[in-house]
Design goal:
This protein is an alpha/beta fold. It contains 22 helices and 17 strands. The longest helix is centred in the middle third of the chain and has 24 residues. The radius of gyration is 24 Å and the shape is globular. Pathway: Amino-acid degradation; L-histidine degradation into L-glutamate; N-formimidoyl-L-glutamate from L-histidine: step 2/3. GO terms for molecular function: urocanate hydratase activity.
Length: 671
């Protein structure tokens, strides 16, 4: 397809004639069939909802086709309308547009759906088993058409993948405002999502899936690296964690969209890692991309290879293609010391492909979850109980196990596993409680990221250099309590190019605080202005950040004043970003630990070298970080109190309400 044909296809949107029906591609990793949850009259409603995207003269042809999709897959994806052009991020100049900001968003959308990046690209699932960017291909086509037509004085409004329309606005307003899964709280159970998604009226946007900010496994690899690195320091009593004697063994599961970062993170953190993955296609994809070193299909052979790697002090990442319960139970039987353990199965989505029961093949599980969901649920719960039992045995021998924010502890407790202490709290910490919260979030460090819209690796290399210069300069005068974090982040960005992290767009992830993010962004803006960078840069972050997410079992699990179940921070954050210069904003129900368990939001900002971009950077990034630090300081988190006091000294117009501490004796005497 020529560039002109590609641009014409974008501009058409939904064609007036039927596109040719494409063959079902069995080589692609497809989403499992969803449960048959709709009543007969609701199925008619789902079909009626789907057909409203198309002119009346096409309804007779499309109705039986879409009804068959609903019967066969549990959803109406509108496969016929999947574009035939290659799905990937292109240089920004190749997109038809009237607004450069809109063209940047088109690039980000296509990157989310790149088969190298997306988990189930033909079903528009980006990661996490059900983390969708759109519900169907008609929505994709309409959104791309609107973005090609819009000006800098319009805003595209998105309702759970559906483009409501282009509305008049102004240049400093967001070009796109996204909501995903924002339902009435009493209707926020997993089956409510199944029903509303099958009807075509809501979707689970995960975090960066539905907000057009996913950058492949690199998006989580830095956070995973510093988590594993600091967990290893904790267990091995080695503050530097650059020594490799002895070498730790890290065991986990999942090689999908986000979990696929684990083996690469293990290598960077200098450990031996074993990651179980039930889906051979997912494991093979990460192996071919160089994100895991070895593939193992036999537990006997894997145990031998593990013992040899530990004896040789050889950093290596190994994928076990099989069920994670089998792996944990075998490790509990073997005389192998496991130092670090976690889990990254998609337990936010346990009944629809996020976790597969032991003793069943992948295909058997897929059939059962659709045909007999109640029995499938029982099998999942039994598997969780067995997995926890094996984890407990290894923990009693000294393994440090942590929940990686995938709802492992939550779902295990609901399954009746032996996961609770006598006082009613979990046996094991969330990684945010022990590591990410007190060491990073409380001080404003979080997963800042950027994408070079030129799609030129040379531009990405220059941004790495500029970011390194900023971080090294910040380190010179940094207070002692953040020097260690800066040292790790400087090492990360210095080595980023050598670690071959890019999958899809020319993107980078870097944990940075408010000062670092702002100065890095300003350096990028200057480089675009003077031509060193050949095209604008998109700034963003994971929603898994200082301010972006209220999630009592992950991002806000180290909040202990009772407000960890409140969502004011995430909602305030996206509102504040929207009028301080964000190019697009999003707010989601669900993400990480599941639908109904979290509210999270994010942003994207196009940095184009202008003075307006400089102002947006200073205003919006300041709010985007310090909103969360202020909330954490009010929760009496000491690191946040120190950080917010420093920020108030530097910013005369900034005033935050600080907590007063009361003596325990006074509280105890009152009751």
């Amino acid at each position: 397809m020529t560039l002109e044909e590609f641009q014409a296809d974008i501009r058409v949107g939904i064609p007036d004639t039927l596109p040719e029906l494409q063959d079902y591609d069995f080589a692609i990793n497809h989403a499992p069939k969803r449960k048959d949850i709709l009543k007969p009259e609701e199925k008619q409603l789902a079909l009626r909802n789907a057909l409203r995207y198309f002119p009346k003269h096409l309804h007779a042809d499309l109705a039986p086709e879409f009804a068959e999709e609903l019967r066969k897959y549990g959803r109406i994806y509108m496969y016929r309308y999947r574009p035939t052009y290659e799905m990937k991020a292109r240089p920004i100049s190749e997109y038809p547009h009237r607004s450069e900001q809109a063209a940047a968003i088109m690039l980000m959308i296509q990157n989310n759906l790149d088969p190298k990046v997306a988990q189930h690209p033909h079903e528009l699932i980006v990661y996490g088993g059900n983390g969708a960017i759109f519900q169907n291909w008609a929505q994709y086509r309409l959104v791309m058409k609107y973005l090609s037509e819009m000006t800098d004085e319009q805003t595209l409004v998105m309702y759970s993948g559906h483009p409501l329309g282009l509305f008049p606005s102004h240049k400093r307003a967001p070009r796109v405002v996204v909501t995903n899964g924002m339902v009435i709280p009493n209707y926020s159970k997993p089956d409510d999502w199944e029903r509303m998604n099958a009807l075509g009226v809501s979707q689970y946007g995960q975090m960066t899936a539905g907000s057009y900010m996913y950058i492949g496994p690199q998006g989580i690899v830095h956070g995973t690296t510093i988590t594993v690195l600091n967990a290893a320091r904790r267990v091995m009593h080695d503050p530097s964690r650059h020594a490799t004697n002895p070498i730790p063994l890290f065991v986990s599961s999942g090689l999908g969209g986000m979990s696929g970062a684990q083996p690469k993170a293990g290598n960077i953190a200098q450990v031996v890692s074993i990651v179980a993955e039930i889906n051979p296609k997912a494991a093979q994809k990460r192996y071919e991309q160089g994100w895991v070193d070895e593939m193992h299909y036999d537990l006997d052979e894997l145990m031998s290879a593990t013992k040899q790697a530990i004896a040789d002090k050889r950093v290596v990442s190994m994928a076990y293609v099989g069920n994670v319960v089998d792996l944990w139970e075998r490790l509990a039987e073997e005389n192998i010391e496991v130092n670090l353990g976690s889990d990254q199965t998609s337990l936010h989505n346990p009944w629809a492909g996020g976790y597969y029961p032991v003793g069943m093949t992948l295909d058997e599980s897929k059939r059962m979850m659709a045909a007999d969901p109640e029995e499938f649920k029982k099998r999942v719960e039994e598997s969780l109980r067995r997995q926890v039992a094996a984890v407990n045995k290894l923990s009693e021998r000294g393994m440090y196990f942590f929940d990686y924010g995938n709802a492992f502890l939550l779902q295990s407790s609901r399954a009746g596993a032996d996961i609770m202490k006598a006082d009613g709290t979990f046996r094991y910490p969330s990684y945010v409680q022990d590591i990410m919260g007190p060491m990073f979030f409380d001080y404003g460090f979080g997963p800042f990221r950027w994408v070079c819209t030129s799609c030129n690796p040379a531009d990405l290399a220059l941004t790495d250099h500029l970011a390194l210069e900023v971080m090294e300069e910040e380190r010179k005068n940094a207070p002692e309590d953040i020097q260690h974090q800066l040292d790790d982040n400087i090492h990360w960005i210095r080595e980023a190019g050598k670690n071959h992290l890019v999958v899809g767009s020319q993107a980078r992830i870097l944990y940075a605080d408010c000062e670092g993010r702002t100065k890095i962004a300003l350096a990028f803006n200057e480089a675009v202005r003077d031509g060193r960078l050949k095209a604008p840069v998109v700034l963003g972050r994971d929603h898994h950040d200082v301010s972006g997410t209220d999630s009592p079992f992950r991002e806000t699990s180290n909040i202990y004043d009772g407000s960890q179940f409140c969502a004011d921070m995430a909602v305030q954050n996206v509102i504040g970003d929207s009028f301080r210069g964000a190019t697009w904003v999003s707010i989601h129900n669900g993400g990480g630990v599941g639908w109904g368990e979290v509210i999270n939001g994010g942003f994207g900002m196009v940095v184009d070298g202008s003075e307006e971009s400089s102002n947006n950077i200073k205003e919006m990034l300041f709010w985007d970080v310090n909103n969360g630090i202020a909330r954490r300081s009010w929760a009496r988190n000491e690191g946040s109190i120190d950080a917010i006091k420093r920020q108030m000294k530097l910013t005369p117009d900034f005033q935050v309400t600080l907590p007063n501490f009361v003596d325990d004796d006074i509280i105890n005497q009152a009751f």
